[in-house]
Amino acid sequence: MSQWSQVQQLEIKFLEQVDQFYDDNFPMEIRHLLAQWIESQDWEAASNNEAMATILLQNLLIQVDDQLDKVSQEKNLLLIHNLKRIRKLLQGKYHGNPMHIAVIISNCLREERRLLAAASMPVQGPLEKSLQSSVVSERQRNVEHKVSAIKNSAQMTDQDVKYLEDLQEEFDFRYKTIQSLEQSDKNSVLIKQEMLALQAMLNTLDYKRKEVLSKIGRVIHEIDMLMSNLLTEELLDWKRRQQIACIGGPLHGGLDQLQNCFTLLAESLFQVRRQLEKLDELLTRLTYDGDPIPVQRPQLVEKVNFLLYNLFRNSFVVERQPCMPTHPQRPMVLKTLIQFTVKLRLLIKLPELNYQIRVKATIDKNVSTVSNRRFLLCGTHVKAMNMDESANGSLSVEFRHLQPKEMKSSAGSKGNEGPHMVTEELHSISFETQVCLYGLTINLETSSLPVVMISNVSQLPNAWASIIWYNLSTNDPQNLSFFNNPPAAPLSQLLEVLSWQFSSYVGRGLNSEQLNMLAEKLTGQQVTYNDYQLSWAKFCKEHLPGKSFTFWVWLEAILDLIKKHILPLWIDGYVMGFVSKEKERILLKDKTPGTFLLRFSESNLGGITFTWVDQLENGDVTFHSVEPYNKGRLSALPFADILRDYKVILADNVPENPLKYLYPDIPKDKAFGKHYSCQPSEVSKPSDGGGKGYVPAVFIPVSKILHDSTDPPSPSDLLPMSPSVYAVLREHLSPTVIETAV
Predict the structure, then answer these.
(1) Is the model's pTM score more than 0.90?
(2) Which of 63, 267, 382, 400 has the fewest CB atoms in 10 Å of its CB?
């Protein structure tokens, strides 16, 4: 079953999240129509390879054309229209930057895998629960409702101002008419009646002026209250969700809704400002004793300007945090002299601002860091915000060619060079601009979340650990001295984040049993980890007991092993992985001989082993664990093939494959058959020959078990056997004779 088919079977709460990350950047129609083709391409590799991305984009457009031909024959007018529009959009948007669509599709596929993994987990974690609480959803709806009500009130006040203007024009006309009469005419009864009517009209004008000012004051008060409370909370909540998403959590949405709210409020404030300007114009034409306009208007104008300043300042946000395209799943870790991207948005979307706002990027501006290291940004660091580059037409700017460069210290010091000191130094990338609109000049500043600067890719794992710990532990966006005294983190939340590392990076999260094993690994004991606080040192600085590496280095090596060598097996759920030696024996002892499970080595970095249960002649149960396979061996021989072909030579020198059933009782070939590089029937026969006259050889992993030996079986001896010999043996000899011949 394709990944997309599995996604469509998710519960509605997960499907709502899927809907959030498919937009005009990558329409869901294309994902649906080209599901199998999309999943068969390596978009992640293409996101770092422009030539490969260009080819994939061309092939994607060809696939869309094929679909167009198909639906044209079916005369599906609506789908034809949509596909033509989508094709034009894809070609126009990504023709000059094909790597961008590779990044987008790679991220979408990864988010799908994360959701599938989350759906398979029995319990939602505490962090994810807090991000998706009903209180947050209710507040979002409340904000949208209030903004809409404010917009309606401002528009209604427009009508009141227009009525006031018409009333004053009528008064002005009638008053000037009387003033133009001769003095003798002014004493007539009719004129005196007109004067009384004008006085009544003036009273009405005074009442309407007070009423309009009162309504304007109420609109301003409503905007002030909304900005001070609900909207501020909503923005802070979005920023927190962004932090969590950066370290592997649920994809954060809601920025388009915030943009709609900010834009409507800005439009309402500018509308009120125009209403106050109109009142000032009316004031110049008519004033009188007790006129409320000169008394109240200046205060209202000052308040409107104050709210506009604050609204604009809060609307300038980092939409996508700094990230190297080469490591899309490790944002905020930047390597010197390597390009990174970062995207900013102004949540106030006004056409008058298109291409009028120039944003400048700097690093560590006016900030004292804990480091002696200083950096500058190379590349294009000043760009104009526009509405053309974003699919949703938002007012944004994306810096794609920035490079951090370390400056030489004037004192000749190389600064702190310890392996942890460098990766615990936090830096800030700042952005500044100026908005000039309708007589207002507003200076805007914002900053990225803290970033870690590395000079060697070997520092990446520890740097990423720092990013995880910071964004898990604090909401403060600019605490650059955080690691002077890093706080402990709730173990329950940390384990949830660790599961996210697996779901986002290798497509399958961790279940409760696997997380329990990690908890024991971190604490050295069985704990009720809901209340346990873990220190930064335990996570990333102190070596595991009896080992020469930290917990995080061990875990990162496992992630790398899965990604590069056993990814399909991991995604299928056939790698138990995180299970202690004691626990595996408990699981296997009552199983059929030949039952085995796969677990990660606790003593070797990036190693995977398998343990099987056997039964001695006297009925006793025994366990065998093979020496862990590392990336060196797995680069030479696929792990699924190792499981298929593995042999054990017993004391009587008869080789046999001891692996029969994957725990708990899955036949080995049923579990791993689709991952074998070739089936036994496909092995070449003698007549096939080999390169340059040689017969091709295959490697069979073999271990030797001596009944009196306490050493673990070792796969170090890989006995070569030509595929032709292997095929002939299987075709003409019984299994017993084959094993003897081997």
Answers:
(1) no
(2) 382
